[in-house]
What does this fold into?
Amino acid sequence: MIIKISPKIKSSEITVEKDYVRRRSFIKYSALTLASAGLKPLLAQSDKNERNGQPALKYQKNKRYSTTEKQNSWADITGYNNFYEFGTDKSDPKRNARNFKARPWKVRMDGLCQKPGDYDVDDLIRESELEERIYRLRCVEAWSMVIPWLGIPLHKLIKKAVPDSKARFVEFTTLHDPGRMPGQRSGILDWPYREGLRMDEAMHPLTIMAVGLYGKVLPNQNGAPIRLIVPWKYGFKSIKSVVRIRFVEKMPLNTWQQLAPQEYGFYANVNPNVDHPRWSQKRERRIGSFFKIETEMFNGYADEVGSMYASLDLRKWY
Ligand SMILES: Nc1nc2c(c(=O)[nH]1)N[C@H]1C(S)=C(S)[C@@H](COP(=O)(O)O)O[C@H]1N2
Ligand SMILES: [Mo]
It folds into this structure.
């Protein structure tokens, strides 16, 4: 048996909300300073160029599953990220993932299924009808964004593998390659990053694998070339740069739950009524605006997903 020993950081060091608040007010201040110096148009210009640097994708808008709330800017969505494989600061992934090669890329589907196999991401994109879904993303750290993803409904991928009736859960794994993901050279998490969903959650029509953003190919810092999006759960469930989707019988352990089980559970459904042990989950700050807003049950998707948890004690199964 192999026992992995990694120096774990204290859970108290992972997210400290006051650091976040301090950083935001600093950003606000510098944006004001720049604006008053007449530099705003220049920033907007470089933002646009960067977006145009990404190849465009063909897609259809899905209005039924999209919010009409104001979308966050490309700069917000691609400059304020959690992606520990590329650093623990929100500004690290944009810089450190710049030269990451996300192609060619294969996703393995295996475990309890009839048709296991390796799927090339560009084949999947070519064979799928990509949909734009404008979703809210609500991080467990109490900030949120509105993001226009381009994605493939996960149930369409899962059907290709023909899972067995024994498959009750789905386990997702991020690429493990410390040569390409510098954060993996530190023992801060037990790499590779892992996540899990119950089978019905994975098959739910709201659950997608995103391959793009704002009509363009997914930038590296957002989890290129393919990442999970589960909009009614805290952001950490939406695992990035996925290489494996495995059908399993038992509830898989996810990375944050493994690190701090008293703070992060398997379900991680957005729930304003169950506080994180170290802070309230009642409200959230929409990135780019100053005032906090009320967090909604299941991140506002209660009508669509609430019935899946009707018999679950959400205090116990946080
Ligand atoms: N592999 C991997 N996936 C990850 C993370 C990570 O550190 N590594 N961070 C998660 C967290 S905490 C959040 S909030 C979202 C952030 O996604 P975004 O940067 O596209 O907004 O990615 C999630 N997926
Ligand atoms: Mo997060």
Observations:
- The pocket of molybdenum atom (ligand 2) is lined by residues 82, 139-141, 235-236 (CB under 6 Å).
- The chain has two domains: 15-53, 56-309.
- The first strand starts at residue 60 and ends at 61.
